[in-house]
C-alpha cells in the first residue's frame, strides 16, 4: 500500500519546535554518516525527549521513518531518503551508573560509555572498545568483536514498538507507550538483534571482576585498530559479516580485490572488508564495489557474503 506523505508545514514545524524538536528540511545525509555519502532526507528531525518522541510517532503514524543513530554503519543512497529521518538526542544521550548497573539512553555515544565503564573498572563492554556510533545503534546491530557482542551484558531494552522493517515503517496503529523487553525476549544473533522498533533505553549489568587494567586494554585495542583498520578515512566499518568459519576481509584479500576502486570508493588497502570514501564517493560507487565483491567471492569460494552495513 502506498503511504501518504505528510507535508510538514509551518504549523507542524511550530508544534514540533514547541516540543524542542529540531526540524530540518532537505537535510543532506552525508553530513550525518561516517561514510560521508548520501543525498537529502525530506525531513530530518532531532527528538530530545520521550514526550516529543511519542508526539512525533502520533503525528507521523503513516509515514516512512528511518531511525538514525551515530550513522556509522549505514549507506544512504545518492537520492537520499523520502520520508523522515529521526534522530534521538537530548535526554536520550544520558546515561548513569549504579554499582554494576548501567542505564543508558539510546543516543549516548558508545565510546564515552565504554570509556567511563573502564574508568570505573567495570567489565563486560570490552568487545565494544573502539566502536563508534550510539549505544542504540550498537544494540540494534548487536555490535562487538569477532567472538563477543554487546548483547552479553544487556539486561533489558526499552522500545517504542511501531516499525516493521529495515526502514522502520510505522504500522497504522496508534503508537503505544514504551515497552521494556527482557533480554530473553530478544533474539540476539551475530550482528543482529531483530528489534524492529525504536530503541530508547538500554539496561546493562556489568561486572567488577577486572583481572587486567581495563584502561590499558582500552588503549591497546584502539592502538590495534589504528594499525589494522583505515580509521582515518570515511567508511561505515566492515561491509560484510564474517561467514561462519571465515574472515570476510581475508576472503576479499585472497580474491585480489584489495585496492579496487570505483569512482571515489575503494576497497581499503589496509583492511579488505572496509570500503573507504577517498573523497566525493557516491553510494552508487560503493554499491558497484559491493556487487563485484559478492560475485567474486561466490565464484571463487562458493560463499554468499551477507551485508553488515545497512543500506537505506
Ligand atoms: C571505523 C569503524 C569501525 C567499526 N568497527 C566495528 C566493530 O568492531 N564492530 C561492530 O560491530 N561494528 C563496527 N562498526 C560499525 C558501527 O560503528 C556499529 O555497527 C555501530 O554500533 C552502529 O551504531 P550507530 O549508532 O552509528 O548506528 P547507525 O549507523 O546510525 O544505524 C545502524 C542501524 O541501526 C538502527 N538504529 C540506530 N539507532 C537506533 C535506535 N535507537 N533504535 C532502533 N534502531 C536504531 C538504524 O536504523 C540502522 O538500521 C565500525 C564502524 C566504523 C566506521
Per-chain topology:
Elements: H1 10-18, E1 22-28, E2 40-47, H2 50-59, E3 65-68, E4 74-75, E5 81-88, E6 95-98, E7 101-105, H3 110-119, H4 135-140, E8 154-160, E9 179-182, E10 198-205, H5 214-228, H6 248-254, E11 261-262, E12 265-267, E13 275-277, H7 283-301, E14 310-311
Parallel strand pairs: 2-5, 3-5, 4-14
Antiparallel strand pairs: 1-2, 6-7, 7-10, 8-9, 8-10, 11-12, 12-13
Bound molecules: flavin-adenine dinucleotide.
Write a structural description.
With 312 residues, the chain is of the alpha+beta class. It folds into 3 domains: 10-90, Uridine Diphospho-n-acetylenolpyruvylglucosamine Reductase, domain 2 (2-Layer Sandwich); 92-205, Uridine Diphospho-n-acetylenolpyruvylglucosamine Reductase, domain 3; 230-311, Uridine Diphospho-n-acetylenolpyruvylglucosamine Reductase, domain 1 (Alpha-Beta Complex), CATH 3.90.78.10. Helices cover 24% and strands 21% of the residues. The protein contains 7 helices and 14 strands. It has helices spanning 10-18, 50-59, 110-119, 135-140, 214-228, 248-254, 283-301; strands spanning 22-28, 40-47, 65-68, 74-75, 81-88, 95-98, 101-105, 154-160, 179-182, 198-205, 261-262, 265-267, 275-277, 310-311. Strands 6-7-10-8-9 form a 5-stranded antiparallel β-sheet. The longest helix is centred in the C-terminal third of the chain and has 19 residues, at 283-301. The relative contact order is 0.13. Residues 164-174 have low confidence and may be disordered. Flavin-adenine dinucleotide binds at residues 34, 66-74, 88, 106, 131-134, 136-138, 140-141, 143-144, 168, 198-199, 229, 231, 235-237, 310.
Amino acid at each position: 500500500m502506498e503511504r501518504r506523505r505528510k507535508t510538514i508545514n509551518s504549523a507542524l514545524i511550530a508544534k514540533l519546535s514547541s516540543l524542542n524538536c529540531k526540524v530540518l528540511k532537505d537535510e543532506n545525509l552525508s553530513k550525518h554518516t561516517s561514510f560521508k555519502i548520501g543525498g537529502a532526507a525530506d525531513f530530518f528531525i532531532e527528538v530530545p525527549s520521550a514526550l516529543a518522541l511519542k508526539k512525533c510517532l502520533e503525528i507521523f503514524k503513516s509515514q516512512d521513518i528511518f531511525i538514525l543513530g551515530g550513522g556509522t554503519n549505514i549507506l544512504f543512497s545518492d537520492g537520499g531518503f523520502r520520508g523522515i529521518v529521526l534522530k534521538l538526542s537530548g535526554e536520550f544521550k544520558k546515561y548513569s551508573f549504579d554499582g554494576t548497573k548501567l542505564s543508558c539512553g539510546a543516543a549516548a555515544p558508545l565510546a564515552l560509555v565504554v570509556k567511563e565503564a573502564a574508568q570505573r573498572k567495570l567489565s563486560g563492554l570490552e568487545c565494544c572498545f573502539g566502536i563508534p556510533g550510539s549505544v542504540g545503534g550498537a544494540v540494534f546491530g548487536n555490535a562487538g568483536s569477532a567472538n563477543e557482542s554487546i548483547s552479553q551484558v544487556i539486561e533489558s531494552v526499552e522500545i517504542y514498538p511501531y516499525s516493521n522493517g529495515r526502514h522502520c515503517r510505522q504500522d497504522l496503529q496508534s503508537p503505544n507507550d514504551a515497552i521494556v523487553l527482557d533480554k530473553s525476549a530478544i533474539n540476539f544473533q551475530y550482528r543482529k538483534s531483530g528489534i524492529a522498533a525504536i530503541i530508547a533505553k538500554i539496561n546493562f549489568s556489568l561486572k567488577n571482576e577486572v583481572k587486567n587494567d581495563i584502561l590499558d586494554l582500552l588503549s591497546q585495542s584502539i592502538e590495534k585498530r589504528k594499525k589494522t583498520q583505515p580509521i582515518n578515512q570515511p567508511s561505515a566499518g566492515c561491509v560484510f559479516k564474517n561467514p561462519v568459519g571465515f574472515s570476510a576481509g581475508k576472503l576479499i584479500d585472497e580474491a585480489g580485490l584489495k585496492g579496487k576502486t570505483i569512482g571515489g570508493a575503494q576497497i581499503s588497502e589496509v583492511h579488505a572488508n572496509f570500503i573507504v570514501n577517498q573523497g566525493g564517493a557516491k553510494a552508487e560507487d560503493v554499491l558497484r564495489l559491493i556487487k563485484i565483491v559478492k560475485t567474486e567471492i561466490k565464484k571463487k569460494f562458493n560463499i554468499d557474503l551477507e551485508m553488515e552495513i545497512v543500506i537505506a
